[in-house]
Amino acid sequence: MDLRNQSIVSEFVLMGFTNSWVIQLFLFVFSSVLFLAIILGNSLIVLMVAFDSHLQSPMYFFLAQLSFIDMIDSCMVTPKMLADIFRKHKLISFGGCVSQIFFIHAVGATEMVLLLAMAFDRYIAICKPLHYLTIMNLRVCISIVVTSWMIGISHSFLQLAFVIKLPFCGPNKIDSFYCDLPRFIRLACTDTYKLQFLVTANSGFISLGAFFILIISYFVILISVRQHSSGGSAKALSTLSAHIAVVILFFGPCIFNYVWPFPRWPVDKYLALFDSIITPFLNPIIYTLRNKDMKVVMKKVLDLMRLRFMRLTRSQIIS
């Protein structure tokens, strides 16, 4: 599909965050450090789950998938933001803008479904421990992941089906550091009120609904554990607290940006930065620091890396 034939506008100007050189420098250093930590931290989780026999369970399988999605999520926006941050003219092509919107929504919707699957996995593990491995077998886990990606891609296609043919005949400045759907629609040379409502219903209310479903599911798990075991609620709460933290971090910016999709304040730009940098950075910290098995495997990996580094250093000294 030739996207340029759909519109007079062939490229968009990203306004970024601010013109202050000090703030730009801070954002560049801050985002660069966190982006590197995101890639290294989430890659380490994926590798540990893939190759360590102690982490071969459905919970860690979903955790590895979440880390993989977090890396993709960060890579969709952050590299271009870092490349553009000191540029006077921050340009993105029409096709590049549409592609960015597509992948952001596809990955975001996929993560929502995956978080729902992780909540279901915790429910089975805590409330039906004797049937856990039977219900959450490898085939079921793979099917859930494939289904989550199919839903995410379908959701994104549905969003763009109503947007791709909008006429863009003049305004081409997007007051953000990336192409987001609400600001993209606002630039169309036609009345987009109904389309704005559709975006709100499709993205905003879905985010809000998934958030409440997850929170309710966690309360159901805690009530169920408390009824069966008076001493198990504390352990269940400790297990679920990491999931609740991830859910709040992920859904908070999404709900703000899409339930109120056309704000008059620039806070949505910083919330988007939070969603693309802070959340993928905190996810591996939340899961690894609160999980005994992950900490044990992490210690083994770090000890092995330190041992190999010492051997390499000694060999260089001898040679």
Quick gist of this model?
This protein is mainly alpha-helical and 319 residues long. Helices cover 75% and strands 3% of the residues.
Gyration radius over CA: 22 Å
**Derived structural class:** mainly alpha
User: Helix share of residues?
Assistant: over 70%
Across the major sheet, the strand order is 2-1-3
Care to count the β-strands?
3
Distance between the termini: 59 Å
Helix and strand sequence: EHHEHHHEHHHHH
Strand content: under 5%
Low-confidence parts: 1-6
Lay out the secondary structure.
Layout: E1 11-14, H1 21-51, H2 58-84, E2 91-93, H3 94-127, H4 132-135, H5 138-161, E3 173-174, H6 181-186, H7 193-228, H8 232-259, H9 267-289, H10 292-318
Parallel strand pairs: 1-3
Antiparallel strand pairs: 1-2
Helix pairs in contact: 1-2, 1-9, 2-3, 2-9, 3-5, 3-7, 3-8, 7-8, 8-9
Write structural notes for this entry.
With 319 residues, the protein is an all-alpha fold. The protein is built from 10 helices and 3 strands, in the order E-H-H-E-H-H-H-E-H-H-H-H-H. The termini are far apart. The model is unreliable at 1-6 (pLDDT under 50).
Task: Sum up the structure in keywords.
10 helices, globular, mainly alpha, 3-stranded mixed β-sheet, 75% helix, 319 residues
